[in-house]
Amino acid sequence: MTVRRYLVTALLVGSSCLAVACSKSAPDQQGSERKSLAGGEGATCVAPVRTDALDAPEKHAWDLFLAAVHPAKDPKVARGEPDCTKPLGAPGTTSVWETWRLARTEVFLDDGAEPPAWDDMSLPTGYLGTTPDSSLQAGEKPGQTHMRFDPEEDQSIFVDHGGIGETRMNKATYAFIKENCLWSFDGLSRYSKAVFDEKKPPINFPVDSQEVKAVWIEFTPDDLKAGRQKSYYHIVHAGKTYGMTSFHILTKDTPNWFWATFHHRETPDNPDEVKSKFPLPDRARNTVWANYELGGTQVDFTTPIGSPTVLSDYYIEYDFTKSSCITCHASAHGHPEPARGPDGKLVRTPNGGIAAAREGPLQTTALGVPNASAFMKNGKPYFIQTDFLWSIPFRAREERNPPPQRCLS
Ligand code: HEC
Predict the structure, then answer these.
(1) Whether the CB of 3 sits within 6 Å of ligand 1
(2) CB neighbours (10 Å) of residue 259?
(3) β-bridge pairing 258-264 and 32-35
(4) Helix (H) or strand (E) holding 241
(5) Residue ranges covered by each domain of the chain
(6) What is the pTM of this model?
Protein backbone atom coordinates (compact mmCIF):
# COMPACT_ATOMS: atom_id res chain seq x y z
CA MET A 1 0.00 0.00 0.00
CA THR A 2 1.34 3.39 -0.79
CA VAL A 3 0.79 6.20 1.59
CA ARG A 4 -1.20 8.98 0.02
CA ARG A 5 -0.93 12.37 1.55
CA TYR A 6 2.73 12.80 1.48
CA LEU A 7 4.86 13.90 2.45
CA VAL A 8 4.15 17.29 1.03
CA THR A 9 5.15 17.31 3.09
CA ALA A 10 30.15 11.05 12.43
CA LEU A 11 31.80 10.10 12.33
CA LEU A 12 32.13 12.43 15.26
CA VAL A 13 34.46 9.96 16.83
CA GLY A 14 37.20 11.33 14.68
CA SER A 15 40.59 11.58 16.12
CA SER A 16 39.33 13.04 19.37
CA CYS A 17 38.28 9.61 20.57
CA LEU A 18 41.68 8.26 21.46
CA ALA A 19 41.68 4.66 22.53
CA VAL A 20 42.68 5.67 26.03
CA ALA A 21 39.98 8.26 26.44
CA CYS A 22 37.35 5.83 25.19
CA SER A 23 38.35 2.93 27.35
CA LYS A 24 38.36 5.16 30.40
CA SER A 25 34.64 5.80 30.07
CA ALA A 26 32.49 3.78 32.40
CA PRO A 27 30.46 1.26 30.42
CA ASP A 28 27.20 3.10 31.00
CA GLN A 29 28.65 6.45 30.12
CA GLN A 30 27.45 8.03 26.92
CA GLY A 31 30.00 8.15 24.15
CA SER A 32 33.41 9.47 24.81
CA GLU A 33 34.15 12.84 26.25
CA ARG A 34 35.46 15.61 24.08
CA LYS A 35 36.81 18.05 26.60
CA SER A 36 36.77 21.48 25.23
CA LEU A 37 39.92 23.45 25.77
CA ALA A 38 37.99 26.50 26.79
CA GLY A 39 35.23 24.53 28.53
CA GLY A 40 34.28 24.99 32.14
CA GLU A 41 33.92 22.11 34.60
CA GLY A 42 31.88 19.33 33.04
CA ALA A 43 31.17 21.22 29.83
CA THR A 44 31.81 18.54 27.24
CA CYS A 45 30.32 17.19 24.07
CA VAL A 46 29.32 13.61 23.33
CA ALA A 47 31.29 11.97 20.55
CA PRO A 48 29.33 9.03 19.15
CA VAL A 49 31.41 5.96 18.29
CA ARG A 50 30.51 4.64 14.89
CA THR A 51 30.85 0.92 15.66
CA ASP A 52 28.23 1.30 18.41
CA ALA A 53 25.61 1.51 15.65
CA LEU A 54 25.73 -2.28 15.43
CA ASP A 55 27.28 -3.17 18.78
CA ALA A 56 25.13 -1.01 21.05
CA PRO A 57 22.36 0.57 18.96
CA GLU A 58 20.37 2.14 21.80
CA LYS A 59 23.45 3.69 23.37
CA HIS A 60 24.42 4.92 19.93
CA ALA A 61 21.01 6.46 19.33
CA TRP A 62 21.27 8.40 22.59
CA ASP A 63 24.81 9.53 21.76
CA LEU A 64 23.64 10.79 18.38
CA PHE A 65 20.65 12.50 19.94
CA LEU A 66 22.68 14.23 22.65
CA ALA A 67 25.29 15.29 20.08
CA ALA A 68 22.56 16.71 17.81
CA VAL A 69 20.78 18.63 20.58
CA HIS A 70 23.96 19.98 22.17
CA PRO A 71 24.24 23.79 22.22
CA ALA A 72 25.59 25.02 18.90
CA LYS A 73 28.25 27.57 18.19
CA ASP A 74 26.98 30.74 16.59
CA PRO A 75 26.21 29.51 13.04
CA LYS A 76 27.60 32.74 11.63
CA VAL A 77 30.94 31.80 13.12
CA ALA A 78 31.01 28.02 12.80
CA ARG A 79 27.86 26.60 11.29
CA GLY A 80 26.70 23.17 12.50
CA GLU A 81 29.29 22.78 15.22
CA PRO A 82 28.77 22.09 18.93
CA ASP A 83 29.93 24.59 21.50
CA CYS A 84 31.67 22.27 23.94
CA THR A 85 32.16 25.07 26.43
CA LYS A 86 28.42 24.99 27.13
CA PRO A 87 26.72 22.15 28.95
CA LEU A 88 23.96 20.13 27.34
CA GLY A 89 20.57 21.77 27.83
CA ALA A 90 21.97 25.16 28.81
CA PRO A 91 18.94 27.50 28.87
CA GLY A 92 18.77 29.94 26.00
CA THR A 93 20.91 27.90 23.63
CA THR A 94 20.21 26.54 20.16
CA SER A 95 20.76 22.88 19.31
CA VAL A 96 23.41 21.88 16.79
CA TRP A 97 20.92 20.24 14.42
CA GLU A 98 19.05 23.50 14.03
CA THR A 99 22.09 25.11 12.53
CA TRP A 100 22.26 22.44 9.81
CA ARG A 101 20.82 23.32 6.42
CA LEU A 102 17.03 23.30 6.10
CA ALA A 103 16.17 21.03 3.16
CA ARG A 104 13.13 23.01 2.01
CA THR A 105 14.70 26.45 1.70
CA GLU A 106 18.45 26.01 1.88
CA VAL A 107 19.17 22.91 -0.18
CA PHE A 108 16.41 22.25 -2.70
CA LEU A 109 15.72 25.74 -4.00
CA ASP A 110 12.48 26.62 -5.79
CA ASP A 111 14.25 27.36 -9.06
CA GLY A 112 16.42 24.22 -8.90
CA ALA A 113 19.56 26.36 -8.68
CA GLU A 114 22.73 25.40 -6.87
CA PRO A 115 22.47 26.33 -3.19
CA PRO A 116 25.33 28.42 -1.74
CA ALA A 117 28.24 27.38 0.44
CA TRP A 118 27.55 25.48 3.68
CA ASP A 119 28.11 28.46 5.93
CA ASP A 120 26.18 30.94 3.80
CA MET A 121 23.29 32.23 5.91
CA SER A 122 21.51 34.31 3.25
CA LEU A 123 18.57 31.94 2.63
CA PRO A 124 15.64 31.62 5.02
CA THR A 125 16.73 29.22 7.73
CA GLY A 126 13.75 29.36 10.07
CA TYR A 127 12.75 31.37 13.12
CA LEU A 128 14.23 32.22 16.45
CA GLY A 129 13.53 30.39 19.66
CA THR A 130 15.25 28.88 22.63
CA THR A 131 15.85 26.08 25.08
CA PRO A 132 13.50 26.63 28.01
CA ASP A 133 14.67 28.03 31.27
CA SER A 134 12.75 26.33 34.06
CA SER A 135 13.03 29.44 36.19
CA LEU A 136 10.77 31.37 33.80
CA GLN A 137 7.20 32.10 34.81
CA ALA A 138 4.34 30.92 32.60
CA GLY A 139 3.94 33.16 29.56
CA GLU A 140 7.23 34.88 30.16
CA LYS A 141 9.38 35.04 27.06
CA PRO A 142 12.69 33.31 27.28
CA GLY A 143 15.79 35.07 26.05
CA GLN A 144 15.85 34.75 22.28
CA THR A 145 18.69 32.85 20.71
CA HIS A 146 19.15 31.28 17.32
CA MET A 147 16.86 28.31 17.52
CA ARG A 148 14.97 27.76 14.31
CA PHE A 149 12.06 25.85 13.03
CA ASP A 150 10.10 25.69 9.85
CA PRO A 151 6.62 27.14 10.40
CA GLU A 152 5.39 26.56 6.82
CA GLU A 153 2.15 24.65 6.55
CA ASP A 154 2.56 20.88 6.23
CA GLN A 155 6.16 21.03 7.34
CA SER A 156 7.17 20.92 10.95
CA ILE A 157 4.01 21.50 13.00
CA PHE A 158 1.74 18.56 13.69
CA VAL A 159 -1.90 19.22 12.97
CA ASP A 160 -3.84 16.11 12.03
CA HIS A 161 -1.66 13.98 9.83
CA GLY A 162 1.79 12.47 9.58
CA GLY A 163 4.26 12.50 6.76
CA ILE A 164 5.55 15.89 7.77
CA GLY A 165 8.74 17.18 9.25
CA GLU A 166 11.45 19.76 9.40
CA THR A 167 14.29 18.14 7.51
CA ARG A 168 17.85 19.30 8.03
CA MET A 169 21.17 17.90 6.86
CA ASN A 170 24.70 18.12 8.20
CA LYS A 171 27.74 19.39 6.36
CA ALA A 172 28.90 16.02 4.97
CA THR A 173 25.49 15.28 3.47
CA TYR A 174 25.25 18.77 2.04
CA ALA A 175 28.76 18.64 0.57
CA PHE A 176 27.92 15.38 -1.22
CA ILE A 177 24.75 16.86 -2.69
CA LYS A 178 26.68 19.90 -3.90
CA GLU A 179 29.58 17.90 -5.27
CA ASN A 180 27.30 15.61 -7.25
CA CYS A 181 24.78 18.25 -8.39
CA LEU A 182 21.89 16.48 -6.66
CA TRP A 183 20.02 19.63 -5.61
CA SER A 184 17.53 19.64 -8.52
CA PHE A 185 15.24 17.04 -10.07
CA ASP A 186 17.19 17.39 -13.31
CA GLY A 187 20.47 16.96 -11.48
CA LEU A 188 19.24 13.77 -9.85
CA SER A 189 18.04 12.53 -13.24
CA ARG A 190 21.37 13.28 -14.92
CA TYR A 191 23.21 11.46 -12.17
CA SER A 192 20.79 8.52 -12.40
CA LYS A 193 21.32 8.30 -16.15
CA ALA A 194 25.09 8.29 -15.63
CA VAL A 195 24.74 5.42 -13.14
CA PHE A 196 22.45 3.58 -15.54
CA ASP A 197 25.02 4.08 -18.31
CA GLU A 198 27.76 2.90 -15.93
CA LYS A 199 29.57 6.22 -16.14
CA LYS A 200 29.17 7.03 -12.45
CA PRO A 201 29.11 4.91 -9.30
CA PRO A 202 25.81 4.41 -7.47
CA ILE A 203 24.84 7.24 -5.11
CA ASN A 204 26.74 6.52 -1.91
CA PHE A 205 26.85 9.17 0.81
CA PRO A 206 29.98 9.50 2.97
CA VAL A 207 30.01 7.77 6.35
CA ASP A 208 29.72 10.99 8.32
CA SER A 209 26.41 11.97 6.68
CA GLN A 210 23.54 12.75 9.02
CA GLU A 211 20.01 14.02 8.56
CA VAL A 212 17.25 14.74 11.03
CA LYS A 213 13.55 15.39 10.88
CA ALA A 214 11.73 17.17 13.68
CA VAL A 215 8.07 17.75 14.43
CA TRP A 216 6.60 20.29 16.84
CA ILE A 217 3.24 20.68 18.55
CA GLU A 218 1.48 23.93 19.33
CA PHE A 219 0.58 24.62 22.97
CA THR A 220 -2.87 25.89 23.87
CA PRO A 221 -3.29 28.87 26.21
CA ASP A 222 -4.21 26.38 28.94
CA ASP A 223 -1.05 24.39 28.30
CA LEU A 224 0.96 27.55 28.65
CA LYS A 225 -0.78 28.52 31.87
CA ALA A 226 0.05 25.12 33.27
CA GLY A 227 3.67 25.55 32.18
CA ARG A 228 3.60 22.52 29.88
CA GLN A 229 6.12 24.12 27.51
CA LYS A 230 8.81 24.04 30.18
CA SER A 231 9.47 20.36 29.70
CA TYR A 232 9.93 20.81 25.97
CA TYR A 233 12.62 22.26 23.81
CA HIS A 234 10.36 25.01 22.56
CA ILE A 235 10.00 28.09 20.48
CA VAL A 236 7.88 31.22 20.60
CA HIS A 237 6.99 32.35 17.11
CA ALA A 238 4.40 34.92 16.01
CA GLY A 239 2.73 34.84 19.42
CA LYS A 240 2.46 31.06 19.54
CA THR A 241 4.52 28.55 21.45
CA TYR A 242 5.60 25.23 19.99
CA GLY A 243 7.39 22.31 21.59
CA MET A 244 9.63 19.86 19.81
CA THR A 245 7.83 16.56 20.18
CA SER A 246 9.41 14.08 17.78
CA PHE A 247 12.82 13.66 16.28
CA HIS A 248 14.05 11.23 13.60
CA ILE A 249 17.78 10.65 13.20
CA LEU A 250 19.44 9.10 10.18
CA THR A 251 23.19 8.51 9.94
CA LYS A 252 25.41 6.69 7.45
CA ASP A 253 27.05 4.75 10.29
CA THR A 254 26.12 1.51 8.52
CA PRO A 255 25.75 0.94 4.75
CA ASN A 256 21.94 0.97 4.89
CA TRP A 257 22.05 3.79 7.45
CA PHE A 258 21.32 3.83 11.15
CA TRP A 259 17.71 4.77 11.98
CA ALA A 260 16.50 6.12 15.30
CA THR A 261 13.59 8.09 16.62
CA PHE A 262 12.95 10.04 19.84
CA HIS A 263 9.83 11.61 21.30
CA HIS A 264 8.72 13.65 24.27
CA ARG A 265 7.48 11.55 27.19
CA GLU A 266 3.98 13.05 26.87
CA THR A 267 3.55 11.63 23.36
CA PRO A 268 0.48 9.36 23.17
CA ASP A 269 1.22 5.65 23.00
CA ASN A 270 2.36 4.35 19.65
CA PRO A 271 0.95 0.81 19.43
CA ASP A 272 3.83 -0.18 17.17
CA GLU A 273 6.60 0.96 19.49
CA VAL A 274 8.52 -1.47 21.68
CA LYS A 275 9.32 0.52 24.80
CA SER A 276 13.05 1.01 25.24
CA LYS A 277 14.50 -0.10 28.56
CA PHE A 278 17.73 1.76 28.01
CA PRO A 279 18.33 4.07 30.99
CA LEU A 280 18.38 7.82 30.60
CA PRO A 281 22.00 8.85 30.05
CA ASP A 282 23.48 10.60 33.06
CA ARG A 283 24.39 13.71 31.16
CA ALA A 284 20.74 14.26 30.16
CA ARG A 285 19.59 14.30 33.79
CA ASN A 286 18.31 17.63 35.05
CA THR A 287 18.16 19.04 31.53
CA VAL A 288 15.15 19.49 29.26
CA TRP A 289 16.37 16.43 27.32
CA ALA A 290 15.49 14.18 30.27
CA ASN A 291 11.90 14.56 29.07
CA TYR A 292 12.63 12.79 25.81
CA GLU A 293 12.51 9.05 25.23
CA LEU A 294 14.05 6.73 22.68
CA GLY A 295 11.32 5.38 20.41
CA GLY A 296 13.63 2.75 18.95
CA THR A 297 16.41 2.01 16.47
CA GLN A 298 16.61 0.10 13.22
CA VAL A 299 19.61 -1.28 11.34
CA ASP A 300 18.12 -3.92 9.08
CA PHE A 301 15.01 -4.83 7.09
CA THR A 302 14.39 -7.98 9.12
CA THR A 303 15.42 -9.65 12.35
CA PRO A 304 17.89 -12.55 12.14
CA ILE A 305 14.96 -14.96 11.81
CA GLY A 306 13.48 -12.99 8.96
CA SER A 307 10.66 -11.11 10.71
CA PRO A 308 10.24 -7.63 9.27
CA THR A 309 11.33 -4.84 11.61
CA VAL A 310 9.00 -1.93 12.45
CA LEU A 311 9.99 1.55 13.59
CA SER A 312 7.87 4.67 13.66
CA ASP A 313 6.84 7.73 15.63
CA TYR A 314 3.32 8.52 16.84
CA TYR A 315 3.30 11.97 15.21
CA ILE A 316 5.63 11.76 12.22
CA GLU A 317 4.09 8.49 11.05
CA TYR A 318 0.62 9.41 12.34
CA ASP A 319 -1.91 6.85 11.10
CA PHE A 320 0.77 4.65 9.56
CA THR A 321 2.84 3.64 12.56
CA LYS A 322 2.94 0.05 11.35
CA SER A 323 5.75 0.96 9.00
CA SER A 324 9.47 0.67 8.60
CA CYS A 325 11.87 3.57 8.08
CA ILE A 326 14.44 1.54 6.21
CA THR A 327 11.93 -0.16 3.91
CA CYS A 328 10.11 3.00 2.88
CA HIS A 329 13.37 4.91 2.42
CA ALA A 330 14.91 2.10 0.32
CA SER A 331 12.44 3.08 -2.41
CA ALA A 332 13.80 6.61 -2.74
CA HIS A 333 15.16 6.80 -6.27
CA GLY A 334 16.13 8.91 -9.23
CA HIS A 335 14.64 8.59 -12.69
CA PRO A 336 17.22 8.33 -15.49
CA GLU A 337 14.94 9.55 -18.28
CA PRO A 338 12.00 11.57 -16.96
CA ALA A 339 9.40 12.42 -19.61
CA ARG A 340 9.82 15.91 -21.10
CA GLY A 341 7.51 17.98 -23.27
CA PRO A 342 8.48 19.53 -26.63
CA ASP A 343 9.78 22.57 -24.74
CA GLY A 344 12.20 20.33 -22.85
CA LYS A 345 10.36 20.88 -19.56
CA LEU A 346 9.43 18.00 -17.30
CA VAL A 347 5.93 16.64 -17.96
CA ARG A 348 3.56 17.56 -15.12
CA THR A 349 0.58 15.84 -13.51
CA PRO A 350 -2.75 17.73 -13.47
CA ASN A 351 -1.94 19.07 -10.00
CA GLY A 352 1.46 20.33 -11.07
CA GLY A 353 3.68 17.57 -9.70
CA ILE A 354 6.52 16.11 -11.77
CA ALA A 355 4.97 13.12 -13.56
CA ALA A 356 8.18 11.08 -13.49
CA ALA A 357 8.30 11.29 -9.70
CA ARG A 358 5.39 8.84 -9.65
CA GLU A 359 7.22 6.15 -11.57
CA GLY A 360 9.41 3.51 -10.00
CA PRO A 361 9.27 2.35 -6.38
CA LEU A 362 7.00 4.53 -4.24
CA GLN A 363 6.75 5.46 -0.61
CA THR A 364 5.40 2.45 1.13
CA THR A 365 4.16 1.08 4.43
CA ALA A 366 5.14 -2.40 3.34
CA LEU A 367 7.56 -4.02 5.79
CA GLY A 368 10.68 -6.08 5.27
CA VAL A 369 13.05 -6.25 2.32
CA PRO A 370 12.50 -3.90 -0.63
CA ASN A 371 10.94 -5.12 -3.82
CA ALA A 372 13.74 -5.34 -6.39
CA SER A 373 11.34 -5.61 -9.30
CA ALA A 374 10.03 -2.11 -8.58
CA PHE A 375 13.47 -0.78 -9.62
CA MET A 376 13.37 -2.61 -12.97
CA LYS A 377 12.17 -1.68 -16.40
CA ASN A 378 11.95 -4.23 -19.24
CA GLY A 379 13.54 -6.77 -16.92
CA LYS A 380 16.62 -4.64 -16.26
CA PRO A 381 17.61 -2.45 -13.27
CA TYR A 382 16.53 1.05 -14.18
CA PHE A 383 15.54 3.37 -11.32
CA ILE A 384 18.57 4.47 -9.30
CA GLN A 385 18.42 4.38 -5.50
CA THR A 386 19.30 7.70 -3.85
CA ASP A 387 21.00 5.86 -0.99
CA PHE A 388 17.81 5.98 1.14
CA LEU A 389 17.37 9.75 1.03
CA TRP A 390 13.81 10.67 0.24
CA SER A 391 14.40 14.38 0.55
CA ILE A 392 16.14 14.47 -2.85
CA PRO A 393 13.41 13.05 -5.12
CA PHE A 394 10.74 14.48 -2.87
CA ARG A 395 11.93 18.04 -2.49
CA ALA A 396 14.15 18.70 -5.51
CA ARG A 397 12.60 21.07 -8.07
CA GLU A 398 12.99 21.52 -11.81
CA GLU A 399 15.88 23.69 -12.99
CA ARG A 400 14.81 27.05 -14.35
CA ASN A 401 18.29 27.87 -15.60
CA PRO A 402 21.15 25.71 -16.82
CA PRO A 403 23.26 24.27 -13.99
CA PRO A 404 26.99 24.91 -13.58
CA GLN A 405 29.01 23.34 -16.39
CA ARG A 406 30.54 20.70 -14.09
CA CYS A 407 27.07 19.21 -13.57
CA LEU A 408 26.75 18.42 -17.24
CA SER A 409 29.82 16.25 -17.61
C1 HEC B 1 6.10 5.67 4.25
C2 HEC B 1 7.41 6.18 3.94
C3 HEC B 1 8.33 6.63 5.05
C4 HEC B 1 8.55 6.04 6.28
C5 HEC B 1 7.89 4.80 6.85
C6 HEC B 1 9.56 6.84 6.92
N7 HEC B 1 9.94 7.89 6.12
FE8 HEC B 1 11.41 9.22 6.51
N9 HEC B 1 10.89 10.27 4.85
C10 HEC B 1 9.96 9.88 3.90
C11 HEC B 1 9.87 10.90 2.88
C12 HEC B 1 8.97 10.87 1.65
C13 HEC B 1 10.78 11.90 3.22
C14 HEC B 1 11.09 13.20 2.43
C15 HEC B 1 10.32 14.35 2.92
C16 HEC B 1 11.07 15.20 3.88
O17 HEC B 1 12.21 15.61 3.60
O18 HEC B 1 10.51 15.47 4.94
C19 HEC B 1 11.43 11.47 4.44
C20 HEC B 1 12.45 12.15 5.09
C21 HEC B 1 13.15 11.68 6.18
C22 HEC B 1 14.33 12.29 6.71
C23 HEC B 1 15.05 13.44 6.07
C24 HEC B 1 16.19 12.87 5.26
C25 HEC B 1 15.92 12.32 3.89
O26 HEC B 1 16.49 12.85 2.97
O27 HEC B 1 15.22 11.32 3.67
C28 HEC B 1 14.70 11.58 7.80
C29 HEC B 1 15.91 11.83 8.70
C30 HEC B 1 13.76 10.50 7.94
N31 HEC B 1 12.82 10.59 6.94
C32 HEC B 1 13.82 9.54 8.93
C33 HEC B 1 12.91 8.51 9.06
C34 HEC B 1 12.91 7.58 10.16
C35 HEC B 1 13.93 7.54 11.28
C36 HEC B 1 11.82 6.76 9.97
C37 HEC B 1 11.34 5.64 10.85
C38 HEC B 1 11.17 5.94 12.26
C39 HEC B 1 11.19 7.18 8.72
N40 HEC B 1 11.86 8.23 8.21
C41 HEC B 1 10.06 6.54 8.19
C42 HEC B 1 9.24 8.72 3.93
C43 HEC B 1 9.19 7.81 4.97
Answers:
(1) yes
(2) 25
(3) unpaired
(4) strand 240-251
(5) 6-408
(6) 0.87
